[in-house]
Specification:
heterodimer; A: 194 residues; 6-stranded mixed sheet; 3-stranded mixed sheet; 11 strands; B: alpha/beta; 8-stranded parallel barrel; globular
Chain lengths: 194, 255
Amino acid sequence: MGNPGSLRNMFKRIGAKATIEADPEVIRYARKIVLPGVGAFDAAMERINHAPGLLEVLRGKALTERVPVLGVCLGMQLLTRSSEEGRLAGLGWIPGTTRRFPRQDGLKVPHMGWNIASPTTPSPLTTGIDSQSRYYFVHAYWVQVDEPSHSLMRTHYGLDFDAAIGRDNIFGVQFHPEKSHRFGMQILGNFAAL
Amino acid sequence: MNALRTRIIPVLLLLRESLVKTVRFGRFSYVGDPCNTVRIFNELEVDELLFLDILASREGRGPNLKMLADIADECFMPLGYGGGIRSLDDARSVFDIGFEKVAINTAAADNPDLLTRIAEQYGSQAVVASIDVRSGFWGGATVHTRSGRHNTRRDPVQWAMEVERRGAGEILLTSIDREGSWQGFDLELVRRVADSVSIPVIAHGGAGTVQDIGKVVKQAHASAVALGSMVVFQRQGMGVLVNFPEPQLIEDVLR
């Protein structure tokens, strides 16, 4: 669950002003956008596609105006082209795909708990993050970006996957920074400072 | 590495607006103010916190949402809550505040379908089935509800298998006889349950030393460990001291 309330709590602690908003007319004025994820891939895409004006506003902010965007958990998966969880197209703002963890002995799905995510390509999102930082994950699907330079952090759980991705002003994290103590606070603080 | 680090979870008992600690589900002693205590656990960077309102079900009350919201404001770690959750709406209100998991005990025994309905809406990982077990006078352990007052006469292993089928994502297994006793976990009970289900079992009740943590994980196959007295008292019979074992000590006993 990407819980918007918890994200707002952590931004409050950092000293960044954040509100939970669904109205495109208000989002139009946002200086930064966090895309949390709640529920399933298709359900989330349907809500984005069908809320009048929402997709246009988000596209304008992310691709034309180029304000910083951060997808969290499912919100990061929505940034890819597609997911094995659903049939609808994703936003496709960072080329890549979302797949289900394979059935494998001793590998419980969802991947739930604390795991290490190590920075790969340097990025302002991961400034000050060391290779032993731990984060709280809850997900059954994992992201692989097409272009290695768009992978910002990697994690291992049965296989290696992208724990954080980024392309220009658009970022995503698979883990829950709002539930990951100072490690997550650093990431959200970096995003707030962009 | 496919094995995630073993979660060590402080379990904090709510009694109205206070935190308390019990012994065998009785003998409350006052621990402190919930918000001050969670601030300390935040500083200690614990893996996860679980709050249980020990009288909610017995008194027929729902969750104290105002207090839970204050707790969630302070906590930057995964949070679970149990106590008085009787409906999908109760669960939703706790999730909306910023908790990831709800623990269902009495209501699951009365209406096992509730586990399924919450799991369908929020995913199994959000549903903890809380199972309280007490040994009988003549031997044989049974599942109890209503803060240990009501004997369902169910067998713990059978009930654990059923809650897994119904959609629970993990089991909080509490030994009432060991709770607050510092005597070590009921390894036999934990092993029987953990070996019968494929979802994680959180062992609860009896931890007195870091060695107990190692034993219940290695010998009884618990996936996670809940700590009560150990993290709120200096030592058995001593005063309140909110604390957490050194990570290195935990790593050593789990190795």
